[in-house]
């Protein structure tokens, strides 16, 4: 368990980073203040919306959460363009943080895609079982049992890539300690907005890891200052969601997704019916259970498809932003500072 979660206190072990965001001689102009307020107000709306979308362990909620995250990262890219802050004016620490965060987010996205593919493979097993059950063929009994057993084993197994996400989340948490902004009003706006994006990213990714792994080990209790327009909504959302996750984890094991548990409930019911021999679609209880299994499997499949598309979209947004920064850095470094170009290339690797 991370040192940060064990303490259950403010996330900032090295002091308050917001004091670093108020350097002398960098007062915000009305135009810059309007840009920052627009970003923060929009983020506040997104966070409030997530509170109203139902069960956080449903694929529907998770799809909305990652969609919200995509919108925030697009806004960061739009803000960078609106600030018109040349790359050569970026502090080296900003660049390192941006590149480091982006590679961690790409790794996390890959882990989520891997888990969704794994679940989808399990869904195919359920589809095969439903087909055999509906055919009412005695010859398919052994295969049906095998499909259902494989499904149960898969939902109890762990994805190694998800285990690696624990380290990635720790790295994202450490990146919340912002670098000092030196006499740059535009830099102050950028760092403050990036802080909001990082907080939302860390929160949503940690909830995803908890839902997929059945572990609350990497839930973070972030203490966000009320100086942010989105702070109140975030603190309320985080408190509610973390409470639900920890409660559900303590009473369940394995994957916590609502749709998977819906399939499991019917699979367990069919397992009991099949203990006395093959089920028959002539029996009302068996027919109802088979229909329920098909319905739950369809819910799972539909949710997986939508969530997978959003995770892919998030991956592409992060990758596009990273590539754009690297391209700008290469152009800036050409003929001016070859060692800086090498540093950027190594960081990308």
UniProtKB/TrEMBL annotation:
Pfam family membership, one: BPS1
InterPro entries from the UniProt entry: BPS1_pln (IPR004320)
GO biological process, one term: shoot system development
Organism domain of life: Eukaryota
Protein's UniProt name: BPS1-like protein
Organism expressing this protein natively: Trapa natans (Water chestnut)
